[in-house]
Specification:
- This protein has about 100 residues and is mainly α.
- The chain has a two-stranded antiparallel ribbon with strand order 1-2.
- The N terminus is likely disordered.
């Protein structure tokens, strides 16, 4: 996720509002499923997040697909993707980093 234009958060750092809307339509449900699925049940309960057995089954299937997909991608590509994303995030948040008083 990246900031695009003003203070709105977008899924894609390029492309403008039309592409961002299309990205949201495709990615919103899986991202919500991953976010809520990774929470412990007690946290979902306390925040009043609805979570059914069907949601749990979908989350388990998505986690399985993620594990299998990760194994199919060559290690060099996985490492490159991680390094590239960390570099991008670092460049975008450089001015927000903690600097101890000198």
């Amino acid at each position: 996720m990246a900031k695009h234009g003003s203070d709105t958060v977008t899924l894609l750092p390029v492309g403008g509002p039309r592409l961002d809307r299309a990205g949201r339509l495709v990615a919103e449900r899986p991202l919500r499923l991953i976010t809520f699925g990774c929470l412990p049940p007690i946290v979902r309960e306390r925040f009043g997040i609805p979570w059914s057995a069907l949601d749990q089954a979908r989350f388990a299937a998505l986690a399985l697909a993620n594990r299998q997909g990760y194994r199919m991608v060559p290690a060099g590509v996985n490492h490159w993707a991680l390094r590239s994303m960390l570099r991008y995030i670092g460049a975008q948040t450089r001015d927000q980093r903690y600097r101890p008083a000198a």
